[in-house]
Amino acid sequence: MSIHAEKTSVDIKDGQLLKKMLAYAIPHWKMITLCITLAFLIVVTDLARPYIIKVAIDDHINGLHKPMYAVEAEQADRLKSYGKSIVIGGTAYVRLDAAAAESGASSAGGEALRKVQIVEVGEGSYLAEGWVAPNAKLTAEGGGSEVRLTGEGVQLPAVYLDDATISGFRDRDFTGFLMLGALFLIAVIGGAVLSYVQTNLLQYTGQHIIYRIRGELFEHLGKMSASFFDRNPVGRLVVRVTQDTESLNQLYSQVIVNLVKDFIVLIGILIIMLQMSVKLTGLMLVVIPLLAALTVWYRIVVREAQRKMRILLARLNSFLAENLSGIRITQLFVREERQLEQFRELNGEHYKAGMRNTVINSVFQPAVGFVGNLAIALLIWYGGGSVLDGAITFGIVYAFTHYVRQFFNPLMSLAEKYNQIQTAMVGAERIFELLGEKPSIVDKEEPKPLPKQVRGEIEFDHVWFAYNEGEWVLRDVSFKIGPGQTVAFVGATGAGKSSIIQLINRFYDIQKGTIRLDGVDIRDLPLDQLRRAISVVQQDVFLFNGDIASNIRLNEAGITDDEVKEAARMVHMDEFIRKQPLGYATPLGERGVNLSLGQRQLLSFARAIVFRPQILILDEATSNIDTETELVVQDALKTISKNRTTLIVAHRLSTIQHADQIIVMHKGKVRETGNHYQLLALKGYYYKLFELQYKDQKQDMQMQHAR
Ligand SMILES: Nc1ncnc2c1ncn2[C@@H]1O[C@H](COP(=O)(O)OP(=O)(O)OP(=O)(O)O)[C@@H](O)[C@H]1O
C-alpha cells in the first residue's frame, strides 16, 4: 500500500472509538447537558406553534358554534369553572373551550346546567337549547322567542340572535386572538433566542474540544521520530491537524446534539398527536413501514457510495500532494500532459461517484417527502371527513398537517447527518490512531544526564542498523572518534554515511550494537541534552518563516544579537546581511529576501555555530558553495572546529584532507580508516577514489589549458 493511501471508512458501531470521543466530551458534560436541555426547550417552542394555531382555530375561529352552558343570570357563579360567562337578558352563557366541549363537560356541571349552542340555519343564527352536530341540517320554524329548530330527529327551542348579540359572544375571541398571537410571538422569539444560545454554546464546546485535540496532535507530532515522518507524508499530517479535527468538531457541535433534538422532536410529535387524536395518529403511522424500508435501502446504498467517494477523494488528495511537491520534476521532464491525463481520470471517477451520491440523495429526499405527503393526503381524506362528521375539529387536522411535516424533516436530513457522522468517525479514528502511536524514540525512565562539559568522544561499537527490517544499511560498524577530533566519512552514494549522522542524533535507533557519547550509551542519555550537544549542517537547509536573525538563533531567547552577528561574521555572511533592507530583521522567503543555495548553507553554518555545540556535523555541507567561498568557510571551519569534535561527510576529497581521521565506508561497512596519507599509502579503496577525482581534476585543468 502506498504511504499516501488513506483509511476511508469505519464502522460506526465501533465502541472503542465512541469511548475515546466521549472521553473528550466528558469535561464539558455540564455544557452538553445544558445544550440538550436547551434543545428540549427549542423543540417545545417549535411544537407549540402549530398547537397555538390549532387552539386559535378550534376555540376562537370556529369556537362560536361549540356547545355552551347556560344558567339563570343570578346563578352565573356556577359557570365559573368553565370560564367567563356572558349575560344576555336574564341568562348567563359560558362558551366551552374545545377540549372541555369534546370531553362532554356535562358530567362535571351537573344536570342543572342547560346545554345550549349557537346554530346557523339559512342566513340567521339561533341560540338553540341542546347540543347538535355542527353540520346538522336544521330548519327554523316560528318567530320571536318561540322559534323551534327541527331536523335530523331533533326539535330544539331556540332564540334568534341579532348581529350585536353575536358580536357579544365573539368578544372573547378577539382577546383570545390577542393572547394566542402574543404566545405565538413568544414561541417564535423564544425559539430564536434559545437556538442562538444553544448554537453558540455548542460551537464553543466543539471548538474547545478541537482546540485541545489540535494542541495534543501538534505536541504529539513534535515527539515523533524520523521513521514516523518517513511513513507519513506531510500533507496527510496537515489534513489530520486541520481537516479531520474540523469534521470531529462538527460531530461534537452539530450532529450529536441535533440527533438528540431530532429524537425529542419525533417523540414530542407522537405524544402531541396521540393526545389530539389517536385515530389520526394511527393513520399517520401507517406510512412508517414504507419509511423504514426506504431508510434501510438508503443506508445500504449511500454507505457504499460515500465510502467510494471518500476513497477517491483520498486518492485525489495523495495524487495532488505528490504531484504538487514534484511539480518541478514534472515540468523539467515535460510530463505535464501525462500527469494531467492521470488527474483527469481520477477527477472523472470522483465526479462520477459524486454524481451517484447526488442521485441517491435526490431519490431519497423526495421519496421521504413523498411518503410525508402521502401521510398528509391520508390525513385530508380521513381527517376532512371526520371534521364534517364532527368527530375531529378542523384545528386538529390543521395541526396534524404541520406535525407530519415536522416529523418528516429530521428523516429527510438523515442523508446529510449520515455523511457527517461517517466523515467525522473516519476523522476521529485517524486522529486517535495518530495520538495512539507511540514515539519510537523516547527518553529512558531514568536517563543519565550529560555532564555540563561534554567532551565529545563518539564511539560506534559493532553497530547494525536498518531503516526497514532486514535491509541492513550499516553492518557491524565500529570506530572511535576522540574528543575534539575532526573526522571525515567518505564513500560511494548509498554507502551509509548520512545514516551514521542520523544515528548519532538518535533520529533512528539501532538494532544491534552500541553508540556511545563520552562513554555512555546514547539511549541512556536525555534526548534533548544529546541533541543540544550536537549541531548539524545539512545540504538541504530549511528556512522558517521569520527574519534572518530568528532563522539563525531559531527563537532561542538565550542567544544575544551580538552572538548572532558574531556567528554570521564567522561564516562571512555578515556583510551580505547588512546590505539587506532591514539588515538582520529582513524577513526571509516569500515576504522578503530569497537566499541562494549557497547562502542558505552559510546561514545554516551560522545556525550551527551560534548554539556552540560540542559536536559539529557537516553533512555534504559545502556542496552548494562556490570554491572561493568554500575556502573562506574552510578557514572559518578551522576556527570553529578547534576543540570541537567535528564530523564531515563529503564527496569532494579535497575538502577533507586535513581531517585527523578518515573513515571510508563501503556498502554499509567500514572499509578503511586512517588519515589522508595513511590511506593513500594503503593503496586501497580510498586511493582509488582519490585517483579518480584527481584524474578528473587534472582533465579539467588540461581542458582549461587547451582553451
Ligand atoms: N529514510 C530512509 N528510509 C529508508 N531507507 C533509507 C532512508 N534513508 C536512507 N536509506 C537507505 O539507506 C542507504 C544508505 O543511505 P545513506 O543516505 O546513509 O547513504 P550515504 O552514504 O549518505 O549516501 P549519499 O552519499 O548519497 O548521501 C541507502 O541504500 C538508502 O536507500
TrEMBL record:
Residue ranges occupied by any ABC transporter domain in the UniProt entry: 458-692
Protein's cellular compartments: Cell membrane
Positions of transmembrane segments: 21-44, 177-197, 255-274, 280-301, 359-381
GO molecular function terms noted in the UniProt entry: ABC-type oligopeptide transporter activity; ATP binding; ATP hydrolysis activity
Classification via CDD domains: ABC_6TM_TmrA_like (cd18544), ABCC_Glucan_exporter_like (cd03254)
Alphabetical list of InterPro entries matching this protein: AAA+_ATPase, ABC1_TM_dom, ABC1_TM_sf, ABC_transporter-like_ATP-bd, ABC_transporter-like_CS, P-loop_NTPase, Type_1_exporter
Main location: membrane
Gene3D superfamilies named among the record's database cross-references: ABC transporter type 1, transmembrane domain, P-loop containing nucleotide triphosphate hydrolases
Pfam families named among the record's database cross-references: ABC_membrane, ABC_tran
UniProt keyword annotation of Plastid present: no
Recorded topology in the membrane: Multi-pass membrane protein
Keywords from the UniProt entry: ATP-binding, Membrane, Nucleotide-binding, Transmembrane, Transmembrane helix, Transport
GO cellular component terms, semicolon-separated: plasma membrane
Domain ABC transmembrane type-1: 168-423
This protein's name: ABC transporter ATP-binding protein
Provenance organism: Paenibacillus oceani
